[in-house]
Amino acid sequence: MRIVVGATGASGSMLALETLRQLRDAGAETHLVVSASAPVTIAHELGSHGLEQLHDMATAVHEATDIAAPIASGSFDTDGMIVAPCSMRTLSAIAHGFGDGLLTRAADVTLKERRRLVLLPREAPLHEIHLNSMLTLSRMGVVIAPPVPHFYAKPQTIEDAVREIAARALIWLGIDPGERMTRWDGVQSVSGD
Predict the structure, then answer these.
(1) Which of 8, 100, 156, 177 is 20 to 30 Å from 15 by CA-CA measure?
(2) Which keywords fit this entry according to its UniProt record (predicted)?
(3) 2 within domain boundaries
């Protein structure tokens, strides 16, 4: 599989790193594009070598301003795209076809070619403009998945929660994450409750 991975300046750089790690482990070819503002957040959250870590996990890295990159064209066949984390600015730009850089152009291509697009938006609380942009994208078949912890998986660390969130994102891209994801098998009732 060939997946485009976008990372924006929203908080949640761990999501980008774990998503790339899991895609690599699943044997996917990944094409990474980092928004212009993302390196500041990545350095703050992952340290001074964070951007290098992301680059090392990706099969190919494309500059945010390189509108001539292969992922800017529908003729470059991909199986989908994920933006993790996704800022509200990027989500809004995608919702309204504002392809002002490679990341939003690649998402626009993903939409026009009717490929899978998964967005992990990072914002709270949400106002009406955020919600309307999400609704617009959802109506086009985009998976809008705020990175909410899956509490029934009983995560012990933030890394556990991030691993679960990334694994679910892989499923929405059509990729089996294997044992990384806790699968619900029901609740056994306990007598005396």
Answers:
(1) 100
(2) Flavoprotein, FMN, Prenyltransferase, Transferase
(3) no
Domain of residue 97 covers 11-178
Number of domains, the chain? 1
Is 90 within any annotated ligand binding site? yes
Write down the pLDDT at residue 152: 84
Q: Mean pLDDT, 10 residues at a time, over the chain (193 residues)?
A: 97 97 97 97 97 98 97 98 98 95 98 98 95 98 95 91 95 88 64 51
Model pLDDT, residue 191: 52
Residue 48 in marked binding region: no
102 occurs within a structural domain: yes
Is 73 annotated as belonging to a binding site? no
110 domain residue, yes or no:
yes
- 152 labeled part of a ligand binding site: yes
13 is in an annotated binding site: no
Q: In CATH, what number is assigned to the domain containing residue 136? A: 3.40.50.1950
The response to whether 161 counts as a known ligand-binding position is no
Angle in degrees, CA 132, 172, 113, rounded to 5? 70
Is 11 annotated as belonging to a binding site? yes
